[in-house]
Amino acid sequence: MHAELQIDNQICFRLYSAARLVTQSYTPMLNALGITYPQYLVLMVLWEKDCQPVNDIAHRLLLETNTVTPLLQRMEKQGTIKRKKGEQDKRQHIVSLTEKGKALEQKAYELIPTGMGEQMAACPLKLKDYQNLARELDSIINTLKK
Amino acid sequence: MHAELQIDNQICFRLYSAARLVTQSYTPMLNALGITYPQYLVLMVLWEKDCQPVNDIAHRLLLETNTVTPLLQRMEKQGTIKRKKGEQDKRQHIVSLTEKGKALEQKAYELIPTGMGEQMAACPLKLKDYQNLARELDSIINTLKK
DNA sequence: TAACAATATATCGCACACGATATTATTTTT
DNA sequence: AAAAATAATATCGTGTGCGATATATTGTTA
Fold it and tell me: A43, A125, B117, B123: least buried by Cβ within 10 Å?
């Protein structure tokens, strides 16, 4: 038995599990909004800056377009975003929010911070711990992203 | 624009991205072993203790059986594990390593710590940072797991 | 300017995750 | 002990992620 290969010694397994569990804990609130977690990420990107090409959204989320394109297609079908051909560059598809997509921002603001706060209430981490966590994760992300 | 809904302010997005990027950085080594990351997790669980029912593996990985069952079916097809009906409890399926599955431990030990070390070499985090990160992630996991 | 390379997006196939439901065996209750 | 509840696993459908490839448009180069 190699200690290096024990699952409890692995940062990676902790990341994998923590990411899944946190995403799961968003689910009740996101269900109330009728969206999934990756769709919520796309909406956050567009709430911050509307009308972006597919590539910019993908870069922001550190995803490939072969993940983002079908995601956007599903969102368009659900009516939260719309896409139109770029005018200068006809290869681009510019993604923008519909009224429904814009309206979800206020609902998300009402549901999600409160809902997550409740679920994390029992967590012993303090503000400083979350700040450290953010810095550590940013180091890993910056080391590994292309 | 609600600051709470900005993607850069979210621990969740950092977790989601870091988990994907770290898993991606395992991929070259895992490809050399002919397995995927979730399959590697199952193997680590079995390297630690062979012959376990599906439920124990699922609990260990914080996954549901509807994720683990197809994963094990694919692994059985690839010849790294085998399954047999439980003898005391005939509802159970006991999962065990094949010779091929056992042999992968040594290959993993030779490839993975070195390979990950190289990819993380430029990361500014020190041992103490990784220890803090592990503690913080464990707090989140323990708060959210059922 | 015609050929070629690069860019933006899409399509395809496969392997997860996970909610919902089904199936089989065991345990508990009546 | 027969019926009901529970437990262990499997099946099904949908939505990601991602490697590989295709298509359309733009930029570059001989």
Answer: B117
